[in-house]
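User: Reviewer 2 asked us to show a designed sequence for the structure in our supplementary figure. I'm pasting the structure tokens here. Could you produce the per-position amino acids so we can include them in the response letter?
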């Protein structure tokens, strides 16, 4: 009969064939009869996603383990020994989101020794707290890592990933942040051999990806190795064919105690393999486009593989992953096209084409849209427009009416995307701080560095676009810089954000300078990398002002100190203080005075050492032609 289901509810849920209609009435199908479950036909059937079933089973397992632990603690036999288990700590509740299963459940019956790296020894209780902290605040952005069931096995099988998680989780941990500096040197010794040997384990790829999401601060003499880590991870993914995992039925059963058992990629699980491939796609696309490089997965061959992986993982992906993947695909496509088309007159039409494609992503995935997805969308638009804008302005210095119009359109569209990105990040940060302590909420200080990098890029783009010809409203650009500085100052202990705040303060200090007013984009220090083109050139010009003003400021400070001493002796110290404040508060006073923003106008003297300067992965000297 038309409109009548051929399969029973259980078989439809499992997506398998059903022979109920070929059997007598009121006789269960073969599958339901074998599994001893009710065979029925529900009229309003709605398939439950597999990830929800998995999460429910995981939660039940967690409750079972908790009850077993409580029973052991209350058992009379447990009172015979006075020693308490090093794992006798309160277990956290499962994740609120059903799609994000808990990363780690402490097994209170597992005996654990102290964990050692170099000459550093960490007790099991501290390690468990850091692992749980990673699961609560970092794992949602690193969903490709399989949840941990046994710390002892995980440490023995994957030492690099184990210590990478401990290092990342300790950096901003309230109780264990002091471990971070102690772990850096022994961790670098552990990581060093992987830079000149072939990556053979999927867990080693995971460790490299974590270092790309939350990079280790640079040593003063070193250049950021993030791009090297990405290259190693991508090469290993391709070499291990993580996107072409065999079906579960074709995987050979593992041998008993085989040599280097953990290094067989097929035994990591097909789901984890393909999630790792997609993570490489997302992270490399973000990092490459920020630097102005071609993303490694831009070819149609890899795009086809990635789409197939997404289709096969539909039930395992977190909400928002599919639109993010669609945006990353478009970013790969337009970077490839803009790389091949070097005619400046065609840039605007290409921008409009890809901009429309990005808008269609929003319309298609509106049901699972969120602020973090919109941040990526606005960055994709900004990156697209900025790339085309640089090519138009650098390739041809002659100004005609058509070129003038194209530049004006791109500047307006790019500034709108940058302003929207800043607004999104402000909303996302304020909501996260307001919901601090609630299950599933991640504090912004634990966000991957990408979010803060593109936020800084958006502010600098608006600032530089305000001084292009034709220009936008200067005050709007200054307000964007102030908004970003107020977000950065919320996290004074974040190394990158502190450096970014100091830089924005210097940019604001010299925002009204004639040097910026008369600096077209065609005179950028470097044009081979997009982020360096805008950010590094702006920092270089700011550094020149700092160097040029230092002698004069030193002389002024000496005169003010002498005058203050004289005025103090005369009983007029209040007048001297007002004079000093007036000298340092004339920066964008016409704009800042009308904004209800907690900006501090007393910048002070900040020494920017540009030979070792690094802001969100843009190293000084690395990008100079």
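Assistant: Here is a per-position design you can include in the supplement:
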């Amino acid at each position: 009969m038309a409109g009548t289901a051929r399969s029973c509810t259980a078989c439809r849920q499992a997506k398998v064939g059903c022979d109920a209609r070929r059997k007598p009435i009121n006789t269960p199908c073969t599958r339901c009869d074998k599994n001893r479950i009710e065979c029925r036909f529900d009229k309003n059937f709605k398939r439950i996603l597999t990830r929800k079933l998995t999460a429910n089973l995981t939660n039940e397992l967690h409750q079972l383990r908790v009850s077993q632990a409580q029973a052991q603690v209350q058992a009379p036999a447990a009172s015979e020994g006075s020693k308490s288990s090093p794992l006798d700590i309160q277990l956290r509740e499962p994740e609120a989101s059903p799609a994000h299963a808990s990363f780690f459940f402490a097994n209170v019956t597992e005996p654990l020794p102290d964990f050692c790296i170099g000459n550093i020894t960490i007790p099991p209780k501290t390690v468990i707290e850091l692992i749980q902290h990673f699961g609560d605040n970092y794992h949602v952005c690193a969903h490709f890592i399989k949840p941990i069931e046994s710390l002892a096995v995980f440490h023995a099988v994957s030492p690099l990933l184990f210590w990478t998680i401990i290092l990342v989780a300790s950096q901003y941990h309230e109780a264990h942040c002091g471990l971070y500096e102690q772990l850096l040197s022994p961790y670098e010794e552990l990581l060093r051999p992987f830079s000149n040997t072939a990556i053979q384990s999927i867990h080693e790829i995971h460790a490299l990806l974590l270092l790309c999401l939350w990079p280790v601060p640079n040593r003063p003499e070193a250049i950021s190795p993030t791009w090297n880590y990405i290259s190693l991870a991508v090469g290993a993914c391709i070499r291990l064919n993580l996107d072409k995992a065999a079906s579960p039925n074709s995987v050979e059963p593992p041998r008993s105690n085989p040599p280097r058992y953990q290094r067989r990629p097929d035994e990591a699980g097909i789901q984890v393999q393909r999630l790792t491939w997609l993570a490489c796609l997302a992270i490399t696309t973000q990092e490459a486009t920020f630097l102005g490089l071609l993303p490694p997965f831009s070819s149609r061959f890899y795009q086809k593989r990635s789409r197939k992986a997404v289709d096969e993982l539909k039930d395992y992906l977190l909400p928002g992953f599919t639109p993010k993947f669609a945006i990353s695909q478009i970013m790969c496509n337009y970077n490839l096209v803009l790389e091949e088309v070097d005619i400046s007159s065609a840039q605007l039409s290409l921008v409009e084409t890809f901009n429309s494609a990005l808008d269609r992503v929003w319309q298609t995935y509106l049901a699972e849209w969120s602020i973090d997805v919109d941040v990526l969308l606005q960055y994709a638009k900004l990156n697209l427009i900025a790339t085309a804008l640089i090519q138009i302005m650098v390739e041809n210095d002659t100004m005609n009416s058509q070129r003038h119009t194209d530049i004006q359109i791109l500047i307006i569209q790019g500034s709108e995307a940058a302003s929207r990105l800043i607004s999104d990040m402000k909303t996302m940060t304020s909501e996260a701080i307001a919901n601090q302590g609630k299950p599933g909420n991640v504090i912004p200080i634990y966000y991957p560095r990408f979010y803060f990098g593109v936020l800084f890029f958006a502010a600098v783009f608006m600032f530089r676009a305000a001084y292009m010809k034709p220009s936008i409203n200067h005050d709007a650009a200054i307000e964007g810089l102030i908004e970003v500085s107020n977000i950065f100052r919320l996290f004074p202990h974040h190394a990158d954000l502190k450096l970014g705040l100091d830089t924005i303060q210097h940019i604001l200090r010299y925002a009204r300078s004639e040097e910026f007013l008369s600096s077209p984009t065609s005179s950028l220090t470097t044009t081979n990398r997009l982020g360096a083109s805008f950010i590094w050139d702006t920092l270089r010009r700011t550094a020149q002002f700092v160097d040029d003003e230092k002698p004069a400021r030193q002389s002024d400070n000496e005169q003010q100190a002498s005058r203050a001493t004289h005025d103090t002796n005369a009983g007029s110290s209040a007048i001297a203080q007002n004079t000093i404040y007036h000298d340092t508060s004339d920066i964008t006073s016409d704009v800042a005075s009308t904004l209800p923003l907690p900006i501090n106008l007393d910048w002070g003297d900040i020494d920017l050492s540009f030979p070792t300067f690094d802001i969100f992965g843009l190293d000084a000297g690395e990008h100079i032609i």
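For the response letter, you might also mention the following. The longest strand covers residues 115-117. The radius of gyration is 29 Å.
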